[in-house]
Each structure stands twice: as C-alpha cells, then as structure tokens.
Amino acid sequence: MSYEVLAQKWRPQNFNDVVGQKHVTTTLKNQILSERIGHAYLFWGPRGTGKTTVARILAKAVNCPNRLVETEFDKLPTAEPCNQCDICTDISQGRSLDVFEMDAASNRGIDTIRDLRENVKLSPATCTYKIYIIDEVHMLSTEAFNALLKTLEEPPPHVIFIMATTEHAKIPKTITSRCQDFDFRHLDDEKVISRLQLITTTENITADEEVLTLIARQSEGCLRDAENLLERLVSSVGKNLTVATVEPTLGFGSSFLLHQLTEAITQRNLADSLATLNRLAKQGTDLKQCLHQLIVYFRDLRLLAIDNNLAELVQSPKSDLPELKQAAEQMSVGRLSRIIRILMHTTRDIKQYGYAQLQLEAALIQLNSLEEGLQLQEIVNKLSALEQKIDSAEGATHLSKTAQSPPPLSLGAPPPSPRARVSSPQAGSTHADFHAETEPQGMAPEPNPKELSDALAQQVTRDLAELPSFWEEVKSQLPMKTRYGLLNEAVPSVNGENRVKIACSPTHFSIANEGEKQNIVDALTQVVGQPVQVEWTNLDTVPQTADSTDASEKKEQKTAYVRKREAEEDPQLKTVLQLFDAKILETQ
Q1: pTM of this structure
Q2: Domain span at 244
Q3: What is the maximum span of the chain, computed from C-alpha positions, in angstroms?
Q4: What is the DSSP-derived secondary structure letter of residue 541?
Q5: 221 and 89 within one domain
Q6: From CA 41, how far away is CA 5, in angstroms rounded?
Q7: Which pLDDT tens digit goes with each residue over 183-225?
Q8: Is the CB of residue 31 less than 8 Å from the CB of residue 37?
Q9: What residue spans of 436-559 are helical by DSSP H?
C-alpha cells in the first residue's frame, strides 16, 4: 500500500474527532438526532479548519444505517457514523455513487450547473440522500449562481447541498439566504498542540513541546498546515525533533541570537541590534519569520505589562513566563505598542518593496530612537499650567502699565514729581499697595495713600462709547479658553446707555455656559467702572460695517508669509510651539 501523509491519515472520520469546531458539530449532531436535516448548508472559514471534512462526515451520518451505540442495557441512536458499513466506507474512500464532490474552481460555468440540475432529479442508488459537496463555491460564475437558485431553494427531498468556501463575502446574498450558515474558525494554539502531541505519540515521533509550539504558531490556527509542517520536519530531520534541528528547516534564526536581538531592542543598544541582525542574515535565517517572532515576543510582553493575569494568552512557551514577566516590568505598555506598530509596518513594507534586511535595519534604528511618550493627562496638565502662567503674566502686565502711566491727578495738591514711582502688585494678589517716592518740592504736601488709590481707581474708568479702543484690554483679563473660544472673532458694539451688544460665532456661542458669559460682563463692568448690560447675538446676524470690511480687506492683503511670521512672534503661540517642539505649517 502506498504511503499516506499525516494530514490524510489523521483526517477525522466522525464529529467527535473534529478539533476546534464544537459549535458546528454540536448543531449538526442535534439536527441528525431530531431528524431536522436542512436541504442546503454553507460552510465558510479559513483554510485547513475542517470544512470539507465535516461535509463528508455529515454525508456519512445522514446515510449510515447503523447509527446506534450499545449501552449496558440497550442500543441508543447516535449522530455519529459507524465507519464500518459499506456506505460509510464508500463515502470515506470517495467511490460512493450518491455523494458527489465538485470543485467549483475548475467547474464554474453554467453548463456544469445545468447538468447538476438534471441529475438531482434522479433518486439515490444506494443511500438515503444524494449529497452534493461543492468546494470553493465562491468561484462559480454569476450565471452559474443564478442557474442554481431555484434548485437550491426547492431541491427534491432526497438531495442535500453542502457548499464550502473561504470567501464568504463573495457569495451572493440570494445564495446565502437559502442555506444554513456555519462559520469555521481558526484553532487555538493549545488545541493544535494537543492534536500534534496525539499524532507524534501514535507515530513514535519524539518532539519537544517547544517544537510543537513553533509548529502551531507557524500554522496560524490551521490544523492541516500544522500536520503538513510536522510531516515536512520528520522527512527532513527524522523522528527526533528538537528546537536546534528544526530551526534551520523552518527558517527561524538561532534561539540564542533571537534572544540577543530582543534584549538589544529592549535596552536600546543599536550597535548590538544591527550586529545580531547581520549574524542572523548570514545564517540564512528567513528574516520575515524573524520579524514575525519579534512581533509575537513583544505582543506577549505587552500582555504581561498590562496584567500578569493575562499569562494564559501568551503564545511563548510557559517555561519562558518568569523571564517574560521580568522583561515586561522594564517597559511601558505605550512603548511596547509603538514597537509592535513599527514592526508590523515593516512587515508590510517588506511585502511591498522587498529588501528585508534593509527594512529591518531601518526598523531597529527607529526602535532605538523611540522615546517614552507623554500620557494624555500629562499633556492636559501642562497646558493648564501654561494657561494659568500666561493669564497671570498678562494680568500683572496690564496692572503695571495702568499704574505706570496715570493721568494728572486732581487732589488739591501739586502733581507728583517726575521721579515718582508706583509699584505694581504681584501676580495673583487681590489688593495693590501703591507707594510714591518723591523728592521734597518746597512745602508741597505728600499725597495721601488712600486718595492716590481712589484716583487710580477713577482713571481706570472708561467711556463705554470708546469700547472698540479698549476691547482688547477687556479680553486680556479673561482666561485663554474664553478669549479663543466665545470671544474669538467676536464683534462688540454699543447699544444704548450702559448697554453692549456682543456678536459671537454661532459655534462657540452654542457651547458657552452662563458662567463664562458672566465673567465677560464682570470684566466690562470693572473696566468701565459702572454696571453694564450685555446682549448676546450670533455673528451672522450682525451687519458688517464699513470699518470691519476695510479691516478684513487689509487682513486679506497680508501675504501668507507675513501671517506666518506674525503667528510665530505671538508670545502665547511661541510658548506652545516650544513646549511641543512644533512649527507652524500654514495660516488661514
């Protein structure tokens, strides 16, 4: 008898032997036991997960005459085929006259479907049901799908259609709506390893658990791929499989060198990283596989950095857990996420442009220069502190200018000497103490401090009619949030005695709160020196005056270069640019 490969030899022959698709097999067994068998099934999912295998088992189960299991006292019906009768044997060996397997990739035309429509009318030769298994059904042409619709919806009672595909999205909705959908999923590494351990034990193959882990990780959740890879390794290095013997065959680099590379990346040692990568390349290592292993390693570190309780999700061997936990404590989740992102982008670039070693070297340089990023809350705190400093500095500057240039005072005494100096309050103070230092001028009396304070308070009072001239002064007393929010592009105008109308942008006006508006009223009242009533309106409802039109025209006449230079010289923006090491690209 000719040699049978492991994937064929260990192909499941009953539902209980199917690995990792219990949600499918349980439903099918219940349908068989309750005799609620559907007329059309659609199995879809990744390659090598058991779609065609389950289709054959279902074909045997619905036709097997010996679906009975013996108990101590009686025989009970079961959903599993016996695999001993002629019907089960013929279906397993592919020689049954009533089970047709069709490859839609090579039989995708309408003529094939027309022949199928004629054949379904014939009764089964030996079985209860005539089964049509159509593999890769998404390859059928549009005309073939349309020809299949009526037969698929209302087939003869002795016909069951089982369709399998890896491209569920390419199946027309008119087809899927006539079938029972079953999704086949990738297998967990633990289930693949468990199956491989059963195979190696039965076939007298010695394999370390780390070797089986590498095979399972390489198969990416496809059991057939894992079995074929095991077959290849046995043919290459024999039945004694160790990490050292299988790494060259798999294209993996030396475990020691990979460990050195990960440590060099963790410690930001660029020279060691590049030297180790060069040694891996000289050994003939598949650098794509090396990159995949790096992604898996740092993904495991990120899981452990998030929480040690996520150790069950780690793909590395369990024996490496203590070392992984120790490495995870030295790195933040943010840095690990950025490392994984860079490595994944490198994988994409290698597929698109090639030059694997060059791309990996560039990635290592980028990883070495990767700094810990600031958390969002830290940025918010820095901005808040910066805003408070700017507000305090502007408030102190305003009071200082006001105190240093007072108008002539009328206190019933000669004006102060030209050498008089008035001190301004410190930022954050609520009351200012003014001291005048003057030289004696004859018998002129020195002004009373209280009278001087009252006089300075009077000089702050402004005429409301001159609001446009001191509007910026009012805005300077308000927080940055208000200046660049509600009052951004706001247009004030006098609307009668002690009444002011402020037209704001509709966007900012809709989200402003009453406290913010009250702060503006208080600032106006303080500057004007008497209560002021404010009327709020949207900016688009205020007609544009000639002055504002001229101003806008002048503003538009500024070139982009001039606007950019003005923005760069703005003291507030300059501070923000320095904080984030940023630059202005464009002004509008």
Answers
A1: 0.56
A2: 189-250
A3: 136
A4: G
A5: no
A6: 29
A7: 999 888 889 999 999 999 999 999 888 888 888 888 878 999 9
A8: yes
A9: 449-460, 467-476, 480-483, 506-511, 514-528, 546-557
